[in-house]
Structure formats: C-alpha cells, structure tokens
Amino acid sequence: MRSPLLRRKPASDSTIPLINIVFLMLIFFLFAGSISRDDARDIVAPESIAEDEAVRATGALVIAEDGSLTHNGAVTDLDAYLLALAEARAAEDAPSPVRVAADRALPAARLKEVLARLGATGIGDVVLITQRAAP
Questions:
Q1: Distance spanning both ends of the chain, measured CA to CA
Q2: 38 contacts 30 by C-beta, under 8 angstroms
Q3: What is the reported pTM?
Q4: How far apart are alpha carbons 90 and 111 in whole angstroms?
Q5: Residue 129 forms beta bridges with which residues?
Q6: CA-to-CA separations, 133 to 9, 57, 120, 130, in angstroms, rounded
Q7: Buried-state track 80-119, b at ≥16 Cβ within 10 A, e below 16
Q8: Cβ of 17: how many Cβ atoms within 10 Å?
Q9: Is residue 114's pLDDT more than 70?
C-alpha cells in the first residue's frame, strides 16, 4: 500500500516585509534628519592647533604665577611689550595673533588686566595658550 505523498507548503518569504520596514524607517530618518535646525550653520568651526607646545609658545607673552611677564626669554613689563609689539605689527602685512601663555595659578584679575590692556591698544586677535587635559 502506498501512502499518499505529503506535499509541503511552500515557506512564505518573511524577509521581504522586514526589508520594506527597514527601508521605510531609513527614508523617515533621512527626512527627519534634514529638517532639523542647525543653529551653528553660519559660523566656521575653529581649527585645533596640532603643533608641538614648545613651537606654539615661541614668541608668546608668558605670565608667571606672580604676575611677572617674559617675552622671548627676557623679563619685560607690559608697556615695553606693547611698544615692541606695535612696532613689530606695523612692519607686518597681516599681523599674526598675539599669543599669551598664563600660569595655571595666576590670579584671574591679573590675566584680565593684561588682556584688557591688549584690547585697549586695538589688538583684537589674542590666542590664550592652554594645555590639553589628560584623558
């Protein structure tokens, strides 16, 4: 006696609806992401300085913890520095920014005083040299 052959039902392809859902979600997120507001679209992001710190600090006005000033390894006062800076900037076509390296323990009032004097002389481009924090 022969037994009837059992026909197997063809397995439904269940991956197609899953792919459709994934593509619909992808399209939704593409549209939702492009409609969001970007408040920083009108500015240019600052560039990071990837130079060695010894190179970056070369030529900087260094303010020690006690408030004393040095420039190019020589002790100076703020008036002498501003006079030398004005002469140097007059000779340059495009003056480079003034670099200031302040000690971590320097009182903020002294730093504010030096920066205010730099601003009062018309120097608007001042770079404060900082140290990258260890992770």
A1: 80
A2: no
A3: 0.56
A4: 25
A5: 101
A6: 66, 17, 31, 9
A7: ebbeebeeeeeeeeeeeebbbbbeeeeeeebbeebbeebe
A8: 10
A9: yes
Give the CB-side neighbour count of residue 55, counting CA atoms within 13 A.
4
40 — pLDDT class (breaks 50, 70, 90): very low
Are 86 and 121 a contacting pair, CB within 8 Å?
Answer: yes
* Residue type, position 92, single letter: E
**Largest pairwise CA distance in the chain:** 117
DSSP, res 135: -
Q: What number is the average pLDDT over the span 26-31?
A: 85
Count other C-beta atoms under 10 Å from residue 61's C-beta. 23
Give the sheet arrangement for strand 74-76, strand by strand: 74-76, 69-71, 61-63, 98-102, 126-129
Joined tokens for residue 23: 């593509």
What does the DSSP 8-state code read for residue 67?
S
Q: What's the token pair of residue 117? A: 């004097």
Q: Running DSSP on this structure, what letter comes out for residue 92?
A: -
